[in-house]
Amino acid sequence: MNAPLTLLVAAAATGVTEAVLVLAPATAERWREARGRWSSRRRDFRRFRDLPDFLELLSLALSCGHPLPSAWTVSVRHMPSGRFKNDLETASAALRHGVPASRCLSDLAARVGDPRAAMALALIAQALDLGNALEDALLGQAASLRRLRLTDVERRAQTAPLRMMLPVVGLILPAVMIVLLGPIVLRIMSGGLFS
Questions:
Q1: Neighbour count for residue 48 (Cβ, 10 Å)
Q2: What is the three-class DSSP state of 188?
Q3: In Å, what is the CA distance from 51 to each residue of 22, 44, 108, 116?
Q4: What pLDDT, in 10s, does the model give residues 75-96?
């Protein structure tokens, strides 16, 4: 038998107050878990949102003639503060200490946690390993990530009417029906509709 249902049945025999006291910790724990999942998704979305900006800044710094570690540091300096900037600063410190750029990019991809961002960073690392022009790869991946984000936003916008239908049907429609049908039901109960 389901644990919350068992608690509810057991608590129903003792009274409503006890049922609330028994179920409140379980509900609070579920709320904390859901809130943690929501905030981690939001944090990952922010990281994914800021990555194209960083790639464009890095491309600009590289095209100005900076070597990769110095271009990375300059680009990180202009990013908005937050967890993503902290991740970039960690990668910048690793680059300055001689860690290969491909390893820094793969570590950054693991910290960002988004598979699309990981793919873009892996392609940049591959371009770096093969000796291709890094500026073109950075700009191409930034444009690709922006397109993916726009597609995701459009997809969520298309499902918005379906998500709004539940409150309309569940909350507003019953109230309208009560207002419209209430007087008719009262008149039928009081003696007839046509008397």
A1: 20
A2: helix
A3: 45, 11, 11, 11
A4: 999 998 888 889 889 988 998 8
Where do we find the tokens 């990013």? 79
- What tokens appear for 160 in the block? 């918005």
CA distances from 162 to 115, 165, 179 (A): 27, 5, 25
Report the candidate in 44, 56, 58, 80 with the shortest Cα–Cα distance to residue 152.
44
pLDDT of 77: 92
Task: Encode pLDDT of 113-162 as tens digits.
Answer: 788 888 888 888 888 888 888 888 889 989 998 999 899 889 989 988 88
Instruction: Quote the tokens at residue 146.
Output: 């922006």
Contact 62, 138 (CB under 8 A): yes
Is the distance from CB of 60 to CB of 35 less than 8 angstroms? Answer: no
